[in-house]
Specification:
Order of helices and strands of chain A: EEEEHHEHEHEHHEHHEH
Number of domains of chain A: 1
Strand order of the largest sheet of chain A: 1-2-3-5-4-6-7-8-9
Number of strands of chain A: 9
CATH class of chain A: Alpha Beta
Distance between the termini of chain A: 34 Å
Function (chains A, B): Serine hydrolase involved in the detoxification of formaldehyde.
Organism (chains A, B): Sphingomonas suaedae
EC number (chains A, B): 3.1.2.12
GO molecular function, one term (chains A, B): S-formylglutathione hydrolase activity
InterPro entries (chains A, B): AB_hydrolase_fold, Esterase-like, S-formylglutathione_hydrol
Radius of gyration of chain A: 17 Å
Oligomer: homodimer
Number of helices of chain A: 9
Largest sheet of chain A: 9 strands, mixed
Shape of chain A: globular
CATH architecture of chain A: 3-Layer(aba) Sandwich
Largest interface: A-B, 23 and 23 residues
């Protein structure tokens, strides 16, 4: 497998790169970004994954996320995958919340989605293997994961399904219970079919109810987020964590909305929180 | 004069706003952004102006500039105007470096540009007067100015022409001598005509040679900037400052290019540098 360098830019003492490769899992070219902080030759750095929300590509957080200064201070590599397969051959939907830009980090089982929409396997397996091969300084024995909205859902569910792989899991305004909100019900029924039992591996609250565990979670949500009540439902995550004994730090941030102005405000906090756990 | 609020978002404890108004100077609607940090009621905060480069609007730095954390720490308001008049009635040019997005902070004298392309008067006079009226917390007795590339040229020339108005002047990769580079010669001849004497108020080095003075300047330039040799020519600014006794701090940043990855890396430095001078 080869990897193509789309761009590299020096930033905050490190290198912000954008890369493209032919994904065997999605059957498409896939683009992702990696920030590698300045580091001593031969040093190996922990990795923080960031999964993006609806309509986004790798570019949104790369341009607007304000993570590089904090990653440089913490010595943490930051990786941002795309949110779906792309290309003319990939089936799509007119809606912003299904199809391209809205892969929901699932392996689809329903046609016409099943062939390309395999973002779970892409993010969990193929991309980490590629990183291991291509980025010698990335220490995959020390990984954390975070994300925003649909990507917060992705971070929570991937973290809960793989507690041995991720030392730290956080989220910004995650879709906390896809089984119980319009975005989730639409996406999971579309990609996985009507049997709601098949959806449970893709719902943080259901995973916790089914016995999956992480030690702790950090979640920030803006109390002026327009999606708070109908789509995000952090109170369901709080309840699930309380019942399961998971140490959830849920911060309702006053006046903040769902935008990158919210994310960038608390990004340095999250990077430092992950950094402490990844370097402990 | 009325001002329309396009958007406001809570960010880094303050408010990032985007506003539109009908400019009497340009004869068009003009859009600009303002970040107001959290502050005590009745407090008045110094103002840092940021002028953007070719092809940009207010949005580029607002999304990618990474200034809000530093402005919140320093208690400095950050204002980003557009780079030219906009609209269907405004004459344009197919090139990226002339016409819309390329106002060069001049008052044009040549047709068809003279009617709308009056960015000098807009940035020097009309917009500050609007800010004074509409933003009660803005203390215009304490102003600093900075900018990038064409906007660095704008910051240097506006600062040099108005030393009593601006306590602090800095720039990122400025066009240091428009009389002696292709971007400058094209823009100034197009907007001002062929008499190069008329260009001198719009050239930092010529202004210094003609006796304009500021106490000090801070300038960062990437040594991997592809425009360094042909367009930016910081060595001409260094020579002009040396001859005039202006305390120029010119930092050639190794490996950095002309992008917002460069700007955002050193933005916090510039905001803190201005903050110290604006609050002294």
């Amino acid at each position: 497998m080869t990897i193509e360098t789309v761009s590299t830019n020096r930033a905050h003492g490190g290198v912000q790169g954008v890369y493209r490769h032919a994904s065997a899992v999605t059957g498409t070219p896939m683009t992702f970004s990696v920030f590698v902080p300045d580091h001593a030759e031969g040093a190996r750095l922990p990795v923080l994954w960031y999964l993006s929300g609806l309509t986004c590509t790798h570019a949104n957080v790369t341009e607007k996320g304000e993570y590089r200064q904090a990653c440089a201070e913490q010595g943490v590599i930051f990786i941002a995958p795309d949110t779906s397969p792309r290309g003319e051959d990939v089936p799509d939907d007119d809606a912003y919340d299904f199809g391209k830009g809205a892969g929901f980090y699932v392996d689809a089982t329903q046609e016409p989605w099943a062939t390309h929409y395999r973002m779970r396997s892409y993010v969990e397996d193929e991309l980490p293997a590629l990183i291991l091969r291509e980025f010698a300084m990335a220490d995959l024995s020390r990984q954390g994961i975070t994300g925003h909205s649909m990507g917060g859902h992705g971070a929570l569910t991937i973290g809960l399904r793989n507690p041995d792989r991720f030392r730290s899991v956080s989220a910004f305004a995650p879709i906390a219970a896809p089984l119980h909100c319009p975005w989730g019900e639409k996406a999971l029924s579309g990609y996985l079919g009507d049997n709601r039992e098949d959806w449970r591996p893709y719902d943080a609250c259901a995973l916790i109810a089914d016995g999956n565990r992480v030690a702790e979670l950090l979640v920030d949500v803006g109390d002026a987020d327009p999606f708070l009540t109908d789509q995000l439902k952090p109170e369901l995550l709080a309840e699930a964590c309380r019942e399961a004994g998971i140490d959830l730090t849920l911060r309702m941030q006053p006046g903040y909305d769902h935008s990158y102005y919210f994310i960038s405000t608390f990004m340095a906090d999250h990077v430092a929180w992950h950094g402490r756990r990844l370097k402990a």
